[in-house]
Design a protein that fits this description.
Number of domains: 3
CATH superfamily of the largest domain: Umud Fragment, subunit A
CATH architecture of the largest domain: Ribbon
Largest sheet: 8 strands, antiparallel
CATH topology of the largest domain: Umud Fragment, subunit A
Distance between the termini: 143 Å
Radius of gyration: 55 Å
Number of helices: 3
Helix content: 10-25%
Oligomer: single chain
Order of helices and strands: EEHHEEEHEEEEEEEEE
CATH class of the largest domain: Mainly Beta
Strand content: 15-25%
Length: about 325
């Protein structure tokens, strides 16, 4: 934009003010561009009024567009809303992870509790492991062996059979003068939550209620109801069936039991003169030892000896002879 100095007279004095160029008129277009027209008097020199440009142009001659401001505000509002939603989503995600972790912990606790209860029920009513305390059953079991006892073997009117390996409580038979444990201790032992103690024995059933068991015939064998019993399948090699002669009729509801290592076993023979006559009440039997579990190298089932099949039907448990 060019400017012109005001004209001067010949004598150098400034020209009268009436000769100044009238104020420039400014028109502002809708797009904010200022369009100016010069109004010049006849014979006058066109001058630009410096005060008109700033008033008309504002910021570089453009005015604010209300629509543009609204669009900008809307964009900023959308951005703000998106950020808020993202923050809320992140918070929800963190909360969801925490909630999921707590639910998983509760599920684990419930699973653990159910497993413990199930184990206790199985241990109390179905099957329970027992340790063999001595060598009285050598030939079949060794000291320190762990056997799994089937506590349902004689449930539902079942009864121990000749040849079974049974685990029983010796109070009242092998321990005729031992008092019963307290109620709490007995319940804990029956549930498998307390050690069985020194009142529990493992032996093999030789005679049942009503059987006559004698030792020994001319061949050195036991006889049950007059039938000789071949014990070579389970006796410790080199052991005799018995070094002590006896002749006993087993009372009803009782059992005559002996160890497989006869020379090292204190069994029914050793309690003949005591209350109970050395026989074991059926109600004191905890269960039948069905499996040898440990050591793992000797894990096996404890099978029923076939020799006892020869005695079936000869009496016992009320059977006809």
């Amino acid at each position: 934009m060019s400017t012109h100095e005001p004209p001067t007279d010949r004598d150098g004095s400034p020209a009268p003010t009436g000769t100044d160029t009238p104020t420039r008129s400014v028109v502002v277009s809708g797009t904010g561009k200022a369009v100016g027209t010069d109004a010049r008097p006849e014979g006058g020199t066109g001058n630009v009024d410096r005060s008109a440009a700033p008033d008309a142009g504002g910021d570089d001659g453009a005015t604010a567009d209300p629509d543009a401001e609204e669009d900008s505000g809307g964009a900023e509002g959308t951005e703000g809303a998106g950020s808020a939603e993202s923050a809320e989503g992140a918070a929800d995600g963190e909360g969801g992870e925490d909630g999921g972790g707590r639910r998983w912990s509760r599920d684990l606790l419930w699973i653990g509790a159910v497993c413990v209860v199930a184990l206790l029920l199985v241990n109390a009513f179905v099957a329970r492991p027992f340790a063999v305390p001595s060598g009285s059953m050598e030939g079949t079991l060794r000291p320190g062996d762990r056997v799994l006892v089937n506590q349902l073997a004689y449930a539902f009117d079942g009864r121990p059979q000749r040849g079974d390996v049974v685990v029983f409580d010796g109070i009242g038979s092998f321990l005729p003068y031992r008092d019963e444990p307290s109620g709490v201790k007995r319940l804990l032992a029956e549930a498998g939550l307390a050690p069985a103690g020194d009142t529990v024995y493992v032996k093999r059933v030789i005679g049942v209620g009503g059987d006559r068991v004698t030792c020994c015939d001319s061949d050195g064998r036991l006889r049950v109801n007059g039938v000789p019993l071949d014990e070579s399948a389970y006796l410790l090699p080199g052991d005799a069936p018995s070094a002590v002669p006896f002749d006993i009729v087993v009372p009803a509801g009782k059992l005559w039991v002996m160890g497989d290592h006869r020379s090292a076993s204190r069994d029914s023979r050793d309690h003949l003169g005591e209350p109970g006559g050395g026989t074991v009440p059926v109600k004191r039997v905890i269960g039948r030892a069905d499996w040898l579990l440990f050591p793992l190298g000797r894990t096996t089932s404890l099978d029923w000896p076939a020799a006892f099949a020869a005695i079936e039907g000869t009496g016992g448990h009320g059977e006809p002879r």
